[in-house]
């Protein structure tokens, strides 16, 4: 494997920093050429000084001078989120690791596909919102899209080497988050602090809340639908509290393959970076000399309405998943700001879908319009 040159979009976040840990373990395999961050200027400056990329970008223009003052390398510095796509498409980039948060990640993914890059995708909204456009663009490009999401990495690892038309079903596992055993009454009183405390995975704030509402699983079902070209009814969520089995693929002969491992995002990250090869990773292993319990239970859709809303949005098609995603982003932010209660999150999503769904054909323009329109609506209701 020749040395791969990486553009890491969102390098100061949870996935970005873990990707850089992998680069530290494999300096002969990877070279960082682009680093971008939203607002964490101090960490970005540290990363630039350590990895000496060709380009560094801070999204907030106001922080540009601060970045310049802290950087001591010959790195070319930029500001403004509209330049992210341009940096991702530079000739010297082999792999774009997209770990941007939210809909902001769609455009760089799309641009990188058009430019024929290999993409390690940790931004699930790219597929949730624009899955149809992404699939079309992939068909016309030499680009490869490899999921970094742990469940989708698991699915891919189970599917590699198998005929795709022999897949009967994908079982997507979910930890169920901190509230998997809560009653409806308890759900009504959930606080921000409780929701931010995930039992198994250590992740950013938005995705931690999404895991607790299980919207994350809903978004992942949409993601799997576009990644593996499977109808929603062939993708079944199941609660598996230990987060050891990351997903299961069942084939037409009744045989199932699962991918297992301790919950550690570095595993799907390194798999995406090295795919179809594998690289050694210093991380925890499963200890099979001790007793483990692997348990499963069905998803209660009344307790977690977000899963159903997401599944229905694929059936509705067109811009419905974009509305779902934008309304959810706004609702989660409002919950974190303590403006709304926890159970208002699915209500805002549901109301936005009812109010704004239309038969508009999907295009980059209609996606941006509906995204903006949904954000306005979702910020004002309740
Ligand atoms: Mg996941």
Short description:
The protein has 382 residues and is α/β, with parallel strands linked by helices.
List keywords for this structure.
Rossmann fold, five-stranded mixed beta sheet, seven-stranded parallel beta sheet, alpha/beta, 382 residues, binds magnesium ion, 2 domains
Task: Walk me through the structure.
The chain has 382 residues and is an alpha/beta fold. It has 2 domains: 4-147, NAD(P)-binding Rossmann-like Domain (Rossmann fold, 3-Layer(aba) Sandwich); 152-262 and 300-316, no CATH class. It has helices spanning 14-25, 41-51, 64-70, 84-88, 106-114, 125-139, 150-159, 184-188, 192-195, 205-213, 215-228, 266-274, 305-316, 320-336, 344-356, 364-380, and strands spanning 4-9, 30-37, 55-58, 76-79, 95-98, 118-121, 144-147, 167-174, 235-239, 245-251, 256-260, 297-298. The strands form 2 sheets. A 7-stranded parallel β-sheet has the order 4-3-2-1-5-6-7, with helices on both faces. It is globular, with a radius of gyration of 20 Å. 45% of the residues are buried. Bound molecules: magnesium ion. Magnesium ion is lined by residues 149-151, 220. The site of magnesium ion has 4 residues, from helix 7.
Per-chain topology:
Blueprint: E1 4-9, H1 14-25, E2 30-37, H2 41-51, E3 55-58, H3 64-70, E4 76-79, H4 84-88, E5 95-98, H5 106-114, E6 118-121, H6 125-139, E7 144-147, H7 150-159, E8 167-174, H8 184-188, H9 192-195, H10 205-213, H11 215-228, E9 235-239, E10 245-251, E11 256-260, H12 266-274, E12 297-298, H13 305-316, H14 320-336, H15 344-356, H16 364-380
Parallel strand pairs: 1-2, 1-5, 2-3, 3-4, 5-6, 6-7, 8-9
Antiparallel strand pairs: 8-10, 9-12, 10-11
Helix pairs in contact: 2-3, 5-6, 6-11, 6-14, 11-13, 13-15, 14-15, 14-16, 15-16
Bound molecules: magnesium ion.
Magnesium ion is lined by residues 149-151, 220.
